[in-house]
């Protein structure tokens, strides 16, 4: 949560004038995003009826050369009916601009709330919306490799080292051997599309039980679609600390997904293994962040063990956690 | 800038249901406020046409026993035509409620932007709006003493100590003797009302040259009205670091004020001294914050010298900085 770059209202007003959205009316820095600064911006609207946008300033972690992929994907999905915010282009057609030495993009604001305790009905909607993205994105002309796949997760965990991992929490170093084993068994022939790969509840805006918006595509990449479903399953179906699996939510998610795009038999078989890999992806990034974070920093440290618990659940699940 | 308390959407939705404002539609934590957390909240509206609010959660620094003063003042001023947000009362008439163990208030959202480089025309509007508040608030039935008057500022600076102040910046310890001298000469018979006492540009929402909102009344207290004008003059008429006085802005501010409420002769005479006192109030609080702030904290430290420079300007001004 942050606004890393102070922005003078006068400079913001001048930026907004480069778009056909009417004059700036209000702007509030919002406490979201760890790799960028965000403002909720209100303008008079092109038609004078008022309009709202998210202005995103890219601060770090994002390779600006990848912005055309991320921003183009939003437009591509939005044009195909997915609940995804459009990128607003300036009068010259640019999807991004420079402001205060940084790159910014103006993105459609979608109302909705990010739930903390998803219901099965909400998970069913999310599954269906995710499948819709997968189908819509299959012919998206740009591509991006997954920088956080199982091999990368294994390498990151190995760099952390067993001793450091045990220093974070007893038992965490097991992630290294788990990742190595999964890497050697990883299925490489499952059907692919552009995947979100980070569809946690805070990246979904709900209106009741309906998905009103899917946001924050900055980890999107070409991946196995069933892996994206496994990530989403791990993100939606557990208590935050991974201590409890909510079977109704997890099964509704897959049911919703299959109502739009039925899984193939190999995908179904691969789901438990893909879910373990998804858990290790978050264990790895959380462990790295934990060890790299400066002491005393006010950034919330996310517990890697919350995803080790999920991994143990998937590895040991007696009943099928994906299907009723 | 912060949201100190995570808030589950489900708990927020339940809170909103206690008000007659329609169901929760969206909520964004906003990066404003140092002593409270704030969310920009959208609801369906009592009439279904949509409505926006600021939800404030009081975290620290504020004595909850004083909330009836602060929230009642907003309603009192708003009812008298001042551009001040109303407090929304719940269905039982309460101006504040408890949520997640904290006290919260739902406050009208006013659109507008906080300028960084005020123009003379904007300062004139702010002066007029401030005078409007002073006239409207004269009969406000509650009262609150100024906890940050000249005696308190002197005591705070003395507690910091000359050595620590010099450690922040060479020349800063002069603030102690300046404050002692001002305290002994402080005028006690100037006309009073409820004063904002912290009306920096970020506490004013502008629509072009018009004041659309005055916010953050959490330092409001019964004070000499001319002191409030002096605070506002020091806050609006200088470069942020105090290095340059913008004469046109400073004079337009006072002109706008006097267009609504002409100053008395004693007030006019007292303005330079009151402005020096206003500067010392901010020198004192900034010095205390500087010395108290934990090392490495991510909170921006505001430079006390920015107000020592203003003080020197007021103490040595050849021309009248308040009137043309």
TrEMBL record, chains A, B:
- Top-level taxon in the UniProt lineage: Bacteria
From the UniProt record, give one GO term of the biological process aspect.
threonine biosynthetic process
Gene symbol of the encoding locus: thrB
Q: Which reaction does it catalyse?
A: L-homoserine + ATP = O-phospho-L-homoserine + ADP + H(+)
Give the protein's recorded name: Homoserine kinase
Q: What is its EC number?
A: 2.7.1.39
Q: Is Nucleus one of the keywords?
A: no
Per the record, the pathway is:
Amino-acid biosynthesis; L-threonine biosynthesis; L-threonine from L-aspartate: step 4/5
**Could you tell me which species this protein originates from?**
Tsuneonella aeria
């Amino acid at each position: 949560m942050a606004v890393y770059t102070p922005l003078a209202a006068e400079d913001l007003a001048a930026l907004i004038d480069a778009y056909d959205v009417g004059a700036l009316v209000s702007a509030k820095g919002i406490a979201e995003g760890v790799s960028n600064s965000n403002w909720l911006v209100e303008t008079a609207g092109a038609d004078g009826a008022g309009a709202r946008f998210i202005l995103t300033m890219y601060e770090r972690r994002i390779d600006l050369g990848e912005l055309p992929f991320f921003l183009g994907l939003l437009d591509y999905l939005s044009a195909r009916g997915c609940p995804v915010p459009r990128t607003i282009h300036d009068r010259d057609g640019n999807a991004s601009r420079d402001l205060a030495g940084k790159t910014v993009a103006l993105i459609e604001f979608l109302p909705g709330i990010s739930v903390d305790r998803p219901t099965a009905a909400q998970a069913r909607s999310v599954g269906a919306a995710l499948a819709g993205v997968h189908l819509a994105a299959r012919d998206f002309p740009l591509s991006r490799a997954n920088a956080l796949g199982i091999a990368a997760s294994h390498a990151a965990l190995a760099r952390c080292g067993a001793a450091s991992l045990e220093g974070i929490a007893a038992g965490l170093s097991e992630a290294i051997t788990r990742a190595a084993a999964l890497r050697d068994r990883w299925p490489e022939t499952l059907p692919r599309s552009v995947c979100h790969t980070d569809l946690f509840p805070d990246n979904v805006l709900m209106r009741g039980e309906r998905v009103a918006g899917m946001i924050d595509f900055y980890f999107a990449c070409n991946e196995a679609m069933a892996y994206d479903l496994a990530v989403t399953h791990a993100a939606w179906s557990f208590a935050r600390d991974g201590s409890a699996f909510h079977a109704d939510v997890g099964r509704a998610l897959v049911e919703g997904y299959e109502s739009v795009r039925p899984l193939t038999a190999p995908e179904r078989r691969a789901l438990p293994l893909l879910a373990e890999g998804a858990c290790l992806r978050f264990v790895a990034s959380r462990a790295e962040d934990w060890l790299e974070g400066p002491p005393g920093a006010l950034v919330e440290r996310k517990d890697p063990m919350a995803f080790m618990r999920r991994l143990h659940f998937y590895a040991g699940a007696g009943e099928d956690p994906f299907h009723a």
